[in-house]
Every structure is written in structure tokens, then in C-alpha cells.
Amino acid sequence: MKHRKMGLVLWIAVVLALLAGALLVGSAGRTESVQEAMRDAVLHNINQISLFGMKAVNPGLISAFLVTAALLLAATLIRLLAVPRFQYRPGKLQLVLEEVVGLFDGMARSSSPHRFRFVGAYIFAAGSFIFVGTLFELLGLQAITVHGHPITLPAPLSDVNAAIALGTLSYLVILSGGVAANGIKGVGKTLKEFSLPISMSFRLFGALLSGLLVTELVYYYVNLSFVLPVIVGVLFTLLHALIQTYVLTMLTSLYYGEVSERSEPKKKKVRTAQI
Question: Residue 17, Cα to own-chain centre: how many angstroms?
């Protein structure tokens, strides 16, 4: 009990010391205002990165390339090294993989029991990209902008272009399910939800951007810029990674199951002759 009290007192003392040091240090050395930083976080018209010396691109595109390469490499290594060693009594890695795959497979089966294999594979891939891509910004990888300034690579989906691309792709997957099951009628059923790609895209973009903007505000208006932003950034990032992964995969599987359900032909009414 005494050790716990001593640990708590020591922790409070460290936090107060850091707070006092941050207040004394102040916020000198900033090269841009908070308005410029938040505007560039949305538009990416200042801190751009050269892509192999050919063209200046948004930093979110570089993040998307790195996340995609990491996921493909991990999938290849798991398939070649881990899957052949799977056993009836699963180990830790096998248990984690089975739980993750079972989660998305169960979501696909419950939403689209008549056609679940393709949508199950898609929501697994999309969910993995959203989750890993959102956690990517916690690595704090640095890059140099075209103006020579260092910048931390953001999450891929904090770029509105990436969010629109993923939302549109999910809508096209839903449309393919409707066409595969009902032909032209499936197109009509899918087009009824014309606002779906817009809502998916801006839900992703808005959620991830809100965490980024909150962190920027903490950096600029709270002098504890080497402690508090870490806590705020980690909490927002983990929360958005879980919520946005679940929301997009759930919506995709639900709408896919709705439009891919075969419509039963209408039965013709048989008129009985009256005597």
C-alpha cells in the first residue's frame, strides 16, 4: 500500500514538474500560425512532398503507399511463413488471425448470408487498411517538404482524396453485388442510395481530421507540447481506428446484403371463373 502511495506521489510530482517546465519554456520557435497549420491539414497546399522528383503530392499519398506496402508485405510473410505452420491447437499468432478473420467473416455472413465470400474479403482488406492507416500516424515518420521543412507523415485517410477514393470503392463493391444478384434491377436498387459514397467518404475524413485538428490546437494553445499531445493523439487515434473500421465495414456489408438479395418474382393472380 505504501509503495502505491509513493508511486502516485512520484507520478504527480513528475507531471507537475513537466507542466512547470513547459510553462516556463513557452511556445517560441513556431514558423506558422495555428490558422495556417489547420488550413494546410485540410488542403495540403503548402507542406507537399516530392514524389521521386517528378511531382509534388500530398503527404497522405506517401502514407498510403507505405501502409499499402506494409500490408502486402505482412500478408505475404504470413501466407508463406505462418499459415503452413497452423495447427489444430492454435498458437498466439494463429489465434489472433483467426479471431480477426472470424470477426469480418461473421459480419459478412450475418449481413449477406446468400452472398458473403466476396464482401467478407473486401471488408477485411478495407478494415485492415483503415485500422493500420489510422495507427500509422503514431509512428511519427518524418519527411522533407518541397520547401525543405520537416513534416510528420499523417494518416492516409486524413487526406480527403483518400477518403473519397475508399468511399467510392466501397460503393462500387455494393453496386457489383446488386448487379451480380439481380442484374439491371440491382443497379436501380443501388442507385437509390446515391448519397452513400459521399457519407462514407466524409465520415472517414471528418473523423480522422477532427483528431488531427484537436492535436494541433493542443500543440498551439497548451504549452505542454511534449506530454499532453501524446496522450490526446494516442487516445483520438485509437478511438478513430476502432470506430471508423467498424462503421465502414458494417455499412458496406449491410448495404451489400440488401442490394444483393434476390428479388422474388411476383406471382400472377389466377382469376377463378364465376359460375
Answer: 36
Phi, psi values for residue 49, rounded to 5°: -120, 140
**pLDDT of amino acid 239:** 79
pLDDT at 250: 87
Domain range spanning residue 169?
46-259
Q: Is residue 196 part of a domain?
A: yes
Pairwise CA distance, residues 63 & 149, whole Å: 17
How many domains is the chain built from?
1
pLDDT of residue 133 exceeding 80, the answer is yes
Three cell numbers written together for 177:
453485388
Reported as half-sphere exposure (CB side, CA atoms, 13 A), residue 134 has a value of 28
Confidence of residue 77 (pLDDT cuts 50, 70, 90): very high
Query: From the CB of residue 54, how many other CB atoms can be counted at a distance below 10 Å?
Result: 7
DSSP 25-93: H-STT--S-HHHHHHHHHH-SSS-EEETTTEEE-HHHHHHHHHHHHHHHHHHHIIIIIGGG--SS--HH
The cell for 199 is 457519407
Contact 260, 180 (CB under 8 A): yes
